[in-house]
Amino acid sequence: MTGRVVLTIEGDRARAVAALRALPGLRRIGGAGAELDLTVTDTRAALPPLLAAVVRSGAVLCSVEVTPACICTAEPVPAGR
């Protein structure tokens, strides 16, 4: 199901966006400043890789908003990856 994911981050926005662009299922990246407004083809499938990509980019995730809401489980990303 197509949905929207809004991430608020602290850190290098350009690096986070570059990491996100490589992911399949991402239709659009918008937002300004610390907010990344993403449109994805499947929120449930896209959320774990999105979060992992942002963390790997070196950014700190401050908040995550998903519409429509979904229940997702993700493996933690070890520090330094």
- The CATH architecture term is 2-Layer Sandwich
Please trace the helix and strand order, writing H or E for each element.
EHEEHE
Helix content: 25-40%
The averaged pLDDT comes out at 86
Number of helices: 2
Looking at CATH, which topology would you report?
Answer: Alpha-Beta Plaits
CA gyration radius, whole angstroms: 11 Å
Biggest sheet details:
4 strands, antiparallel
Shape annotation: globular
Q: What ranges have pLDDT less than 50 throughout 5 or more consecutive residues?
A: none
Write a brief caption for the model.
This protein has 81 residues and is an alpha+beta fold. It has helices spanning 13-21, 43-56; strands at 3-10, 26-30, 35-40, 60-67.
Describe the structure.
The chain is α+β, with helices and mostly antiparallel strands. The chain has a single domain, classed as Alpha-Beta Plaits (2-Layer Sandwich), CATH 3.30.70. It is 28% helix and 33% strand. A hairpin with a 4-residue loop joins strand 2 (26-30) and strand 3 (35-40). Helix 1 (13-21) crosses helix 2. The chain is globular.
Produce the secondary structure layout.
Layout: E1 3-10, H1 13-21, E2 26-30, E3 35-40, H2 43-56, E4 60-67
Antiparallel strand pairs: 1-3, 1-4, 2-3
